[in-house]
Amino acid sequence: MNAKLTARDRMARLLSVIPWVTQHEGAAIDEIERRFDYPRDLLLLDLQEVVFFVGVHPFTPDQLIEVDISDDKVWIRYADWFARPLRLSPEEAAKLLTTARAALQLTDGDDPPDPLTRALTKLGTVLGAQADQAIDVRLGEARAEIIDVIRQAIDRRIRVAIDYYSYGRDEVSHREVDPVRVFSDQGNWYLDAWCHTVGAQRMFRVDRIIGAEAGETPVDESRQAQPASFIAAPGDPRVLLRLDATAKWVTEQYPCESVSHGPDGTLDVRLVVTEIPWLERLLLRLGPAAEITEADPPVSPDLIGAAARRILALYDA
């Protein structure tokens, strides 16, 4: 049993426990603990200190979720407001439809889940012509077999060997990783994992994983990584770029520490530079639409000029 649950893990389990207990009209604590891998002390704490206080104003008994624990058994009863029909504005419905369409891409196999498909059909029927205005979200071109290997390894808590193309260093490396989670963010798939090759937690773009093979080695629980976010190391150099309005896509594609807008439509964007070759390629791609106004060592203000001269030298050779 996994007793080292993060707040995210506990919330995910709790959101699964509540409808299951309600549907079964009560359940034994031991059964919930076993079925959801939910340590008993944390389960009771979350039921009594979290769920019991969920409700809406004015927080009278009929507006709160009711939790009853007796004789090692739990009953959960929804508040009255759960029975009210859900009323969405056209904008909210369109956002919900967009999210649901994206969620279909997260499912395993070729057939989407029937409940979600039926809900999409009903929502699209109600929206009518406005359903066509919802955005059709397409995630990065990650290979399904790679995602399947990673997901199965996460479920089995085993190590995975991957061949990974590093865009920043422009090279392919072989790595042994303990996968934590696979998720989508801003249109791309990512693998959050502890990398044994570098001895630290790393985030990998799944579409840059060339191959993945799960072994039989259990993950190292003593160094199990926690779900990470895109947070740079304090020692990484920073660069301040002045971008033309046409290069605004940089702020949407890459994590930025700060973005300020100038009166002439330009943008001053501060980026973290984890790999200098990555910055070189970005600046070469931007061309005259970007210039370096500030740079921490070892990033040179003449980085783009040096990279261009190096490329031209290759053609002269």
CATH topology of the largest domain: Alpha-Beta Plaits
CATH architecture descriptor text of the largest domain = 2-Layer Sandwich
Task: Report the biggest beta sheet as strand number plus sense, adding barrel if it closes.
Answer: 5 strands, antiparallel
Q: On the 0-100 scale, what is the average pLDDT?
A: 76
- Number of distinct beta strands: 12
Number of helices: 9
Side-by-side strand order of the widest sheet: 7-6-5-4-8
| Oligomeric description of these chains | single chain
Name of the top-level CATH class of the largest domain:
Alpha Beta
Q: What class, by secondary structure content?
A: alpha+beta
Shape: extended
- What is the terminal-to-terminal distance? 62 Å
Following the backbone from N to C, one meets helices and strands in this order, namely HEHHEEHHHEEEEEEHEEHEH
**Helicity level, as a percent range?**
25-40%
Radius of gyration: 25 Å
Q: Bin the strand percentage.
A: 25-35%
Number of domains: 4
Unreliable runs, pLDDT <50, ≥5 residues? Answer: 129-139
Kindly list the characteristics that best describe this protein.
5-stranded antiparallel β-sheet, SH3 type barrels, alpha+beta, 4 domains, 317 residues, single chain, Arc Repressor Mutant, subunit A, 4-stranded antiparallel β-sheet
Question: How is this structure best described in words?
Answer:
There is one protein chain. This protein is α+β, with helices and mostly antiparallel strands. The protein folds into four domains: 7-83, Orthogonal Bundle (Arc Repressor Mutant, subunit A), CATH 1.10.10; 90-133, no CATH class; 148-223, Roll (SH3 type barrels), CATH 2.30.30; 238-316, Alpha-Beta Plaits, CATH 3.30.70. The protein has helices at 7-23, 29-35, 40-49, 90-104, 114-127, 144-156, 249-253, 276-286, 303-316; strands spanning 27-28, 66-70, 73-77, 158-166, 171-185, 188-195, 200-205, 209-218, 238-243, 258-261, 267-272, 290-295. The strands form three sheets. It has a five-stranded antiparallel sheet, with helices on one face. Strand 4 (158-166) and strand 5 form a beta hairpin. Helix 4 packs antiparallel against helix 5. The longest helix has 17 residues, at 7-23. The N and C termini lie far apart (62 Å). Mean pLDDT is 76; it is low at 129-139.
